[in-house]
Amino acid sequence: MKCTVCKGPAIIDIRRHNANFCTEHFLEQCKRQVTKAIDEFDMIGTDDRVLVAVSGGKDSLAVWDLLVELGYRADGLYIGLGIGDYSDVSGTYARDFAAERGLTLLEVDLPGTYGYDIPTGSRAARRAPCSACGLSKRHLFDRAALEGAYDVLVTGHNLDDEAAVLFGNTLHWHTEYLGRQLPVLPARDGFPRKVKPLVRLTERETAAYCVVRGIDYLVEECPMAAGNRHLTYKAALNDIEKASPGAKHSFYFGFLDRAAAHFAPEAESDRVELGACTSCGAPTTAEVCAFCRLVDRAGGALPEAGTPTAVAVELGPTRAGATSGAVR
Amino acid sequence: MGAVKVLLRNPRREVDVPGPITIVNLLARFDLNREAVIVIRDGELVPGDATLADDESIEIRPVISGGAW
Ligand code: SF4
Ligand SMILES: [Zn+2]
Ligand SMILES: [Zn+2]
After folding, report:
1. Residue A284 falls within a domain, yes or no?
2. Which residue's alpha carbon is at the smallest distance from atom 2 of ligand 1?
3. Residue A312: CB within 6 Å of ligand 1?
4. Which of A136, A142, A309, B51 is buried deepest, with most CB atoms within 10 A?
5. Does A3 fall in a domain?
């Protein structure tokens, strides 16, 4: 197998591009796809302060690495979810990545600061673990981005993630979600701008990128994910992709080009006025926001007013000299 | 007796497969979709058309993450 660009020995084939790449040109290809996504959807300005939601898995570490490589000022935020060994180990990967590169990693510990963990919270609130987890993470990422005066919050969602969510929303005709499933959500009413620079890369490519770049990430899955529908949709889409390379890309990008706008009015009319949560001040349609209700039911509590929720971690000598954009 | 030593993940286990065998055939043998895995040997990616010989050690690593949020 030869590299399509230089005819040297290839390390990976990407069938939907009908191309093979050597190490050098694969890295170039990944950067080009991320640059293209950022430009096409106006995701990040050159002077923006960027906060990356970091889990210790392949996608979040790849996107952080790619943004730094592309010259963006990007800090990371890791949230300790209290999911047993998984949380302990994933935190180590995030910290090591940051320390080795002299990058700033902020941390929020859910059990330590809010007094509950995801397994307990999910049981107490009678929500699926991923639902309680997603709600908690969204709230804490939004909050840290605003408190730290970041311009944009980056997540590591890739093409497979977006295609799978679109598949689920289409299968069940959740039209109210379809108008909002975009790679950029503009800042509004107390929410930071949220962007997904990896939408043009598949999971196979982000994993390959990590291997090629020598990025150590947590391969083991979160134990709470087992058997969820998202995984079923991904497997189904990969079966289709195998028979028809490029299917995932055309499904998702065809939706963005030709269908998403049709659902925008519904998403818009869904947008009722937001007020401030009486407990934590976050934007909400209710008196008390969903996060505070979850904390309450899980038997936790908000930290004392004035306590910063995200703290910069001491990363040792490698951090010296790095320009720090940490929340103080 | 030699064999290709295959490390599978989630759960982590090791399986011997008689070589020589191509990556494509190896993935078919475990009923794995090429979109859902990468193959790694000595910290490097192994392309799909490579042939593995007995006594080589490789890892087949799943790339599908499950969190929906
Ligand atoms: S799999 Fe679900 S519970 Fe686990 S980290 Fe992801 S969203 Fe949270
Ligand atoms: Zn090349
Ligand atoms: Zn609140």
Report:
1. no
2. A130
3. no
4. A136
5. no
**What whole-number distance in Å separates Cα of residue B21 and Cα of residue B37?**
17
Total domains in the fold of chain A: 1
- Which structural domain range is residue A111 located in? 44-218+226-271+299-312
A30 in any annotated domain: no
| CB of B66 shorter than 6 A to ligand 1 | yes
Q: What is the CATH number of the domain that holds A174?
A: 3.40.50.620
Cα A288 to Cα A139: distance, rounded to the nearest angstrom: 13
Interface of B with A (CB under 8 A): 9-10, 33-38, 40, 43-49, 61-69
CA-based nearest residue to B58, from B1, B2, B8 = B8
Phi and psi of A236, rounded to 5°?
-60, -45
Contact (Cβ atoms closer than 8 angstroms) between residue A202 and residue A248:
yes
d(CA B33, CA A292): 42
Cβ–ligand 1 distance for A130 under 6 Å, the answer yes
Q: How crowded is residue B22: how many other Cβ atoms within 10 Å of its Cβ?
A: 14
Domain-located, residue A17 = no
Tens digit of pLDDT for each residue in B17-51?
A: 999 999 999 999 999 999 999 999 999 999 999 99
| pLDDT at residue A322 in the model | 36
Query: Could you tell me if A147 and A310 are in contact, meaning their C-beta atoms sit under 8 angstroms apart?
Result: yes
Min Cα–Cα distance to chain A from B48, Å? 7
CB contact set of A67 (below 8 Å; sequence gap of 6+): A34, A44, A50, A52, A74, A154, A197
**Per-residue tokens: A97:** 């990545």
Question: Domain spanning B3-62: which CATH class is it, in words?
Answer: alpha beta
What is the distance in A from the centroid of ligand 1 to the CA of A123? 14
Facing B34 at nearest CB: one of A1, A57, A242: A242
Q: Which of the residues in chain A have pLDDT under 50?
A: 315-328
